[in-house]
Predict the 3D structure of the following.
Amino acid sequence: MEIERKYLIDPTKLPFDPKQYPCRHIEQGYLCTEPVVRIRRDNDAYFLTYKSKGLLVREEYNLPLTAESYAHLKEKVDGRLITKNRYVIPLEDCLHIELDFFSDHFAGLVLAEVEFPDKDRADTFLAPDWFGEDVTFSHQYQNSTLSKL
């Protein structure tokens, strides 16, 4: 189960340099968007992911792929391939911010996601001051939607 909130970020308002934190280079594409079937390269790891419908709470299953399988499936991506750098910033209470700086077609877009162990924690979360608009319930900022633009 994936429980997460998503926020728009103005990079000029960051109170830190994200490059001080671990960075992962992510490339992902969608084989299907209803239901979501995604392939992802995360540094040197490869995955096939299924996500159920939903915005705040939804099922998510990740299956490992080989580099060869990923390359084969990449040729079948429907829509745009999404590329981004993800910085992982620790928060209190064992939470983390996944700060995504998109590149290529979506250069300039910065989103922050915070995953929670349960819905109650997600519902009571107080975002840091530098977070922008909460876009958790907006389909517009789902990566599967972006891949169609």
The two ends are 27 Å apart (CA to CA). The chain has one domain: 2-146. Residues 67-74 form the longest helix (8 residues). The helical segments are 67-74, 119-124, 143-146.
